[in-house]
Amino acid sequence: MPRFRISEAAELLGVSADTVRRWVDSERLPADRDDSGRRLLEGADLAAFMSAGSDQDPARRTSSARNRFRGLVTNVVRDRVMASVEIQAGPHRVLSLMSREAADELGLEVGSTATAVVKSTNVVIESTGDRHG
User: Is 9 helix (H, G, I), strand (E, B) or coil?
Assistant: First the structure.
């Protein structure tokens, strides 16, 4: 059975090692200690924790798309008809091509937050509604 160090679990979860330590300390996430005293998480426990967390995401109950990347818009290029929108979501860079009208209606601009929704080979961008500026 695979076991993960706190730092490895944090990377997989997309959070800081301190957050994982807090979850372990509060018994929200089970962990054992190895012979050196380092905390290790069982792969099956980590998988169950990750699955349970995603079930609580309200968007998962209203959309068939399961791959959602909330991030910061880092680039928007518009021409008369189309727009290219780039989002940095943690370590993931997501690029979507959409109509200029859609980008304008969503208020997408560099520095705003948005969620990239990926289903199959299509990327759909959803505005989080917070417009800055």
Answer: helix
The Cα–Cα gap between 114 and 125 comes to: 7
70 has a pLDDT exceeding 80: yes
| Count of domains forming the chain | 2
- Residue 105's Cβ-count burial label (10 Å; 0-12, 13-18, 19+) is exposed
Domain that holds residue 24: 3-56
Please write the tens of the pLDDT for every residue from 78-102. 999 999 999 998 778 899 999 999 9
**In this structure, is residue 133 part of a structural domain?**
no
Rounded to whole angstroms, how far apart are CA atoms 13 and 7?
10
- Asked which of 18, 35, 56 is the last residue of a domain, the reply is 56
**H or E stretch including 71?**
strand 67-78
